[in-house]
Write a structure and sequence with these properties.
- By secondary structure, the protein is mostly helical.
- The chain has one domain.
- It is built from three helices and no strands.
- Helix 1 crosses helix 3.
Amino acid sequence: TFNQLERILQHIPKPSLADIESISSQYGPSVLERAVSG
């Protein structure tokens, strides 16, 4: 779930723009951007 992703991202370094762009999914990058921004 989105909550699980938020919890994981609290404990690892913030993904770079290159990391986010490297995800081979149209949905994945938007989820990560939303999770790391707030």
